[in-house]
Amino acid sequence: MGNTAFKKTFAIWFWGIIALGIVSIVVLFWMITKGWLGYLPPLDELQNPKNKFATEIISSDMQLLGRYYRNENRVSVEYTDISQNMINALIATEDVRFYDHTGVDVKSLMRAVIMLGKAGGGSTLTQQLAKQLWSPRANNIFERALQKPIEWVIATKLERLYSKEEILTMYLNQFDFLYNAVGIKSAAQVYFSTTPAELTIEQAAMLVGMCKNPTLYNPRRRPENALNRRNTVLNQMCKYDYITEQMCDSLKQLPIELQYQSVDHKQGIAPYFREYLRQMLTAKEPKKSNYSEWNKLQYEIDLRQWEENPLYGFCNKNYKPDGTPYDLYQDGLRVYTTIDSRMQQYAEEAVSEHMQSLQQSFFREKRKKKYAPFSKDLSTEEIDGIMNRSMRQTDRYRELKKQGMNESDIRQVFNTPVSMRIFSYDGMIDTTMTPMDSIRWNKHFLRCGFMSMDAHSGAVKAYVGGPNFTHFQYDMVSTGRRQVGSTIKPYLFTLAMDEGMWPCDSTVNDSITLVDGNGVAWTPRDDHHANQGEMVTLNWGLEKSSNWITAYLMSLFTPEQLVRMMRSFGIEGQLDPVVSLCLGPCEISVQEMANAYTTYANRGVRVDPQYVTRIEDINGNVLATFGAKKHEVISEENAYKMLHMLRAVMDEGTGIRARNKYKLKGPMGGKTGTSQNHSDGWFIGFTPSLVNAVWVGGEDRSIHFDNMSKGQGANTSLPIYALYMQKVYEDETLCYDKNESFDVPKWFKPNKGCQ
Prior knowledge:
Blueprint: H1 2-33, H2 43-47, E1 55-58, E2 64-68, H3 84-94, H4 106-114, H5 125-134, H6 141-161, H7 164-174, H8 184-192, H9 201-210, H10 223-239, H11 245-252, H12 271-282, H13 296-308, H14 314-317, E3 334-337, H15 341-366, H16 380-392, H17 395-402, H18 407-414, E4 418-422, E5 429-433, H19 435-443, E6 447-454, E7 460-464, E8 482-483, H20 489-498, E9 506-508, E10 514-515, E11 521-522, E12 535-537, H21 538-543, H22 547-556, H23 559-568, E13 587-588, H24 590-601, E14 605-607, E15 612-616, E16 622-625, E17 630-632, H25 636-652, H26 657-660, E18 669-674, E19 680-686, E20 690-697, H27 708-711, H28 713-716, H29 718-730
Parallel strand pairs: 1-3
Antiparallel strand pairs: 1-2, 3-15, 4-5, 6-7, 6-20, 8-13, 9-12, 10-11, 14-17, 15-16, 18-19, 19-20
Helix pairs in contact: 3-9, 3-10, 5-6, 5-7, 9-10, 10-11, 15-29, 20-22, 20-23, 20-25
């Protein structure tokens, strides 16, 4: 009787516990489905996970220039674009029964429970995806234990909503492989400089190995761990017949050969362009109240851009289907640009090659001079004023101000030596100096801007805003404006041609005095004294960049006429209507000058710079297309007159160095320019197909060579143009013919008006 009662009691308790367990599990999952225990995403969120994908910037020759992202460099990739090697390695290692289960693998789960995880975990790839998308980091083991059943529920729902291929794709797009390599596309690029479709077996095995623990199996910091884990993945692939035993043994003998590329907004090709484009796409509607009184002209320029340029503020003027504006950093847009990666590379090489050489010359000139890098004409007080202003513009100064430090204490900090790394063209230098001395050191480095654009379509092919984006981020193509010197003269000569004059018209080459609107006399100096007192042609005057001939033309017109002509050429900045304007004291950007000179290569029609051809959403749907915007400036005949004179500049005038030294023999036009005190050196050159604008100078106008021969545009800027064109012509894949002729009709005769 006692034994029977015991059995009965045991059975009651046993089945009671079983029943209670079953009921508890049912209640637990019922509470999960109600969202009472942790977050359970609703159906619409499961159907449309809120993934954040970086925007890709793509060149005209379909090369990736870079990406825009806020925290995660994640790029969407389709299943068909992922190597089967990656798929096989992932399944063999992480979830061998992936195609058989419905989100939860009961067999693997029971094995994990019985063996306490020693024989492998029980999580499926679908569960891992659920964890990545919707499980926050657990603070303790109890929170993690509660998350597990939630992930099971989510996993089963995902399996009902998506195909196995879609789940694999979502998983690989989501996983963080470290070093801003989020998702398989970024990982393939960062670690192996390749695409997901081209991953080899051993490369795929290494990346899959990282899925277990990316920090522990980091191939850069723990190469031995990464190698062992990769070989474990290869063994798994062999075990499940994805590769042969012989292949497995062979691949395990290979070392891990990384082709690592760090992901940094400051590095890579076309960094100045990428930053300029980012600012364009994310620009907000200008508000007048946000502009200082002295900067009201910029407000008008920006407002016009907002109203007329569809690229300007694109993300804030266009909306997604849900009514929210596009987010450049997480909506996975694809921006197809006009930049040619090959030409961009040649432009950066040309800038680097010449600027390093020019910098050495500048250092030699300024060596052991107390006023270096400034002009010898500056007083000690003036130099101190510049340095103090520069100090107040630094992040260090602003941070110390935030901390409540007074001016005296801040100056003490800036004059106390500290260990630091400073820039040089030969690499970073570890040294000890004061922050004030480091500011002065950086000011020694000359700055530059270069832009190359198609003369007919306006497509910008290359864009270099400075010598080194990491250290000198101020963009001297579109943001910076500097005095243009003699590159302004063609606009005045164009005005003369437009009023019926011809290149062969002549005048006396002699000093001339003009009177401005306030009755002040102005007599320009001309360093070119050849043929003084003789009759010379206008063609000769532009060819030799004669200030006297320019002043003579200025005497025939009003400053207001010249301003109107320059506005028609697309010059937007401040233009004071004074007689001295004809020698270029006004400040204009490289971008504007390149845009203006397309008029001469394009039969009198100016074409605006075009940076983007189209923008697509993450699914490949075209959101916007962009085309050339053209403006008729002058007649064809007058354009041919100017072309004739600008070609003479290159053949016989101030631009002849491109012929003599750099052996550029094909048809081209151009103009050199040098501002007052040779602070700014310019060269704008063009062929029948390309217009290129170059500026070189110091950070401050008081930083320049001490003599004209070294500081003139023919020496500082023209070489960048010449080196770039040499490289472009040498690359036969670009199809630029160095002997290409300007399309000038037979009826045009440059001396017609003088006969």
